[in-house]
Amino acid sequence: MKYSVEICLRELLFVQECVIIPGFGGFLTKYKSADIDYLNYTITPPTKSISFNRQLRNDDGLLVNTFSMLNGVPFSEANLLVRKWANQFEATLKANTTYTLAQIGTFEWDALGSTISFLPDVTENYLVESYGFPAIIAKPVFRNTHAADNTAVVVKSESIITDIIEEPILAQPFLKTTTEEEVLEPVTVEPVNTKKLLLACFGIFSLAVMTMPFFGFHSDKMNLNEANVLSAFSAVFPSKSVEVAPLVLDNIATPELSVINEVKIVQPVFIVQEEKQAEVVQPVEVVKEEVAVAEVAATNAKYVIIMGAFKDKKNAENLTASITSENKSLEAQLIPNGKVSYVAILAGNTEASAAAKLKEAKAINPDCWIKKM
User: Fold this and answer.
1) Cα(167)–Cα(251) distance, integer angstroms
2) 3-class SS shares of the chain: helix, strand, coil, % to 5
3) SS3 at position 5
C-alpha cells in the first residue's frame, strides 16, 4: 500500500483529539502551551501532548476510513488490513518488549503486569497552528557594572565547579544576577525661623480681628465696631499734616495752609424701592355666538340606510341635497349624532323594505349599511 497505517495515524493526530487502533488502544491529544526551559535557555512553541489509553479498543471507524480513502480500497478490505497490522504490532511488542512508532512514540511491554507503557516523541509537533516552529535559544547576558573594562563577568555554577567566563556586553539582560547599590544624595533641611513665623501668625490674627466688624460681627465685650477699628488704625498710623509754603503771586502772599487727613465715616444709604401693586386683571367673559342649526325632525322609520358620516356638517348637508335631487325615490335625511352628522335614507319599518332600499342605495355608495333606529 502507498500509505501505511503509521502514516495514517500521524495524519489523524494533526486533526483529531482521539485516534483508536482497533483491538489495541487509543491515542489522546491535548493542547500544551509554550514552555520556557530555564536550565537549557530554550523557549518551545505550543504543541500537542500525546497519551495512550489501553482501554480504548472499540473501533470507531476513523482509522479504517482514512486508510481506505488514502489507498483507494474498499472499507471492508481496509478494515481487514488495519486489524492485521494491529495484531502484528501487538505480537511484535510482546516478543521484543519495546516497539517504536516513528514520530509518535515508544511502547514498552511489562510481562509481569501485562501492561503497556507509552513514551511520546516530544520532537514532533502535532499542533497545526505552530507546526514547523523551532525552539528558540535565548541565553541570558550577565552584566557586571564594576568591571574595569567593557567586558562582563559571567559566573556559571554547577554543583561544586565554578567557571568564570569573560564575554562582551551585548544587550540589557533579562536575568539580573548582580545588584547595583543606589547612592542617595543627602537632603539638607533649612531650619525654621521661629521669630518670623510668630510675627506672621500675629499679623494674620490681628488682621482677622480688625476686619471682623466689616463682615457684620460686633462684640460689646471686645468693643469691636467700625468706629473703634478706624480709631485704632488712626492711633497706630497717625495722620500727618502737610505744610504748604506761601506762594507770592503779584506781591500777594497766600496764607499758610495745612491739610489734615481726616477719616470720614460714610453712613450707608439704604434705597427702598416702592413695591408696585400688581394690577388685577378682571376676567372677561367670552360670549360664544351660537350658530343656529336647523333642527331635523325625528324620523319615524325603524330602519335607515347610512350613506356617510361627516364631522363637518356642511359636507353632510351637501350630500343630503345631492341624493334628494338625483334620486326622487330615496328620501335622504340628516341625523346629528354628537360631533358627527349621519346622512341617512329612510328605509321603512321592516327588514324587507330596508333590504330593498339598500339595493338602490348601493348604486350611489357601495359602502352604505343598514342602521336600526
Assistant:
1) 108
2) 30, 25, 45
3) helix
Give average pLDDT by consecutive 10-residue segment, the chain, 373 residues.
90 93 94 90 91 91 93 92 93 91 92 87 88 86 64 44 41 45 59 79 79 65 59 57 49 44 51 53 49 45 85 85 80 82 85 84 84 82
H-state helical runs in the chain: 5-15, 62-71, 75-96, 194-211, 226-236, 313-326, 351-362
From residue 332, give the alpha-carbon distance in Å to each of 341, 363, 370: 13, 15, 14
**What single letter denotes the amino acid at residue 2?**
K
Compute CA distances 105 → 82, 110, 128, 220, whole Å.
Answer: 19, 17, 19, 105
CA distance 56 to 26: 5
d(CA 358, CA 345): 9
Q: What is the pLDDT of residue 26?
A: 95
- In the DSSP assignment, the letter for residue 219 is B
User: Distance from first CA to last CA of the chain, Å, rounded?
Assistant: 100
Which grid cell is 95?
516478543
Residue of 31, 21, 13, 43 whose CA lies nearest to 126: 13
Assess if CATH 3.40.50.970 describes domain 303-372. no
DSSP code per residue over 63-103: HHHHHHHHHT--HHHHHHHHHHHHHHHHHHHHHHSEEEETT
| pLDDT score recorded for residue 254 | 45
Do 153 and 146 form a contact (C-beta atoms < 8 A)? no
**Domain residues of the chain, as ranges?**
5-130, 140-178, 303-372
| DSSP summary character for residue 349 | S
For position 228, what pLDDT does the model report? 62
* DSSP string of 260-305, one letter each residue: ------PPP---PPPPPPPPPPPP----PPPPP-PPPPPP--SEEE
